[in-house]
């Protein structure tokens, strides 16, 4: 274990035989990481254009749309941070949403070549692989000498329960490869004589991270700030911290300037642009980490398959801790052992890691502590901090994601010490090996659950829609597009990525204004037409329709400038089965008899 968080120097150059062994170890880690990435996403590889992630098909559809729209915007000279193609007529501020602009631009050729669903799968798989390799590289080249130690730490972090959970369609949170790069470049700012170049590099990396995972960047910055503050205040490290502070601050200033210039427009949109919102549409009490979840096992793991998984998370994509009892005990044992083995300087690093773990674990409990699903009356620090700007837009449960990399570091440091200084007794070595096996084997990930989703209608894929919508005009599926009915954005993504042209849709899956107390909400504020179609699709019953209802629906059609209403034979419902027949009868009662075109029903809306 290094005596400080220094990343400026790595292990000494290896002899030729040792270098060959190191290269073999690197290759083994790459192959294992690739195998795990493909294993976790294997359900989608069967047919990415047909398969969808069962527990989060709405987010998958959203990210597919973001890839298609981002590539289209860049290749057609449109604004990638704001669009009027969804949420007509107000548009959507993508700077306050997860726009993954860098991914959309970099992978635009692939999106045009193989389509958004397949590109989504490629990025998701690469995210997992790159996260493992980036952490392995940071550990093996800068923090530990043992390749085995680096492999254990890197693979654990990349395939920890939180990362596997967010692999359920979150292209932003699964991009964990950004974190070790940010850590590496931040500590590089201490190098004398290189602060300008290092500041520029970190500034560019910050801009990239913001465009892929702004919330993750924010959490990383907070965690590094806490770690550095605690480390620098430790008596054993105060002198070193004071010595490098001027150089570090100069580099950090350059980072702020470079990132500020690159992100000036997105940041303006984020904080002052149209369709911005404050806070979020999610309840921080619901989206907080249950204290018992830290000792629970995740559903997508060997332990979960054995029936030990729980439902302590608000949904299957937010199992942000779920380390299991075995790993918690092993982590404590590693920390205690490392503390006993360490000198005063090394204990400064351990003290900072421990403090960061406790702080972020407690913050993840949200405004009010929960234990095994039961709320307590015990207020938590997040109740105070959650009122601050920017913090009020974060989900407290995700703060627990900071804990996994720290556990990975402790595991790597422990293995590294045991490899360098083997235990004197065989029984001690066996106990450590058994402890690692008992703690980590139950957490081995299992593939994400997938299912078939309804196909995109031939009416869209054949381009027939262009005969019924003017260029840039408004088409809407029914039920109208929101998070639980993602078809509108799926259709639009297909049209954009296949160069068919543009049509706009009302609604959509996005975060925007209109929530309670001036906060954000998911999707637009419901209007009569969207409420009626949602009711019919959910319940299978045709709502009561009066003359007043028809007038309100006509007002909605004028507000959204809708030219054509479309009902597919099979509508994708992200949370439940949709009753297409009830939707068709409701639309017929409102618009008259439909016209059959290709494999859809359509209703033409006469100009106002």
Automatic annotation (TrEMBL):
<keyword id="KW-0472">Membrane</keyword>
<feature type="transmembrane region" description="Helical">
    <location>
        <begin position="120"/>
        <end position="139"/>
    </location>
</feature>
<feature type="transmembrane region" description="Helical">
    <location>
        <begin position="200"/>
        <end position="233"/>
    </location>
</feature>
<dbReference type="Pfam" id="PF19830">
    <property type="entry name" value="DUF6311"/>
</dbReference>
<keyword id="KW-0812">Transmembrane</keyword>
<feature type="transmembrane region" description="Helical">
    <location>
        <begin position="390"/>
        <end position="415"/>
    </location>
</feature>
<feature type="transmembrane region" description="Helical">
    <location>
        <begin position="146"/>
        <end position="164"/>
    </location>
</feature>
<feature type="transmembrane region" description="Helical">
    <location>
        <begin position="248"/>
        <end position="268"/>
    </location>
</feature>
<keyword id="KW-1133">Transmembrane helix</keyword>
<protein>
    <submittedName>
        <fullName>DUF2079 domain-containing protein</fullName>
    </submittedName>
</protein>
<feature type="transmembrane region" description="Helical">
    <location>
        <begin position="94"/>
        <end position="114"/>
    </location>
</feature>
<feature type="transmembrane region" description="Helical">
    <location>
        <begin position="27"/>
        <end position="45"/>
    </location>
</feature>
<feature type="domain" description="DUF6311">
    <location>
        <begin position="80"/>
        <end position="381"/>
    </location>
</feature>
<feature type="transmembrane region" description="Helical">
    <location>
        <begin position="348"/>
        <end position="369"/>
    </location>
</feature>
<feature type="transmembrane region" description="Helical">
    <location>
        <begin position="430"/>
        <end position="449"/>
    </location>
</feature>
<feature type="transmembrane region" description="Helical">
    <location>
        <begin position="322"/>
        <end position="342"/>
    </location>
</feature>
<dbReference type="InterPro" id="IPR046278">
    <property type="entry name" value="DUF6311"/>
</dbReference>
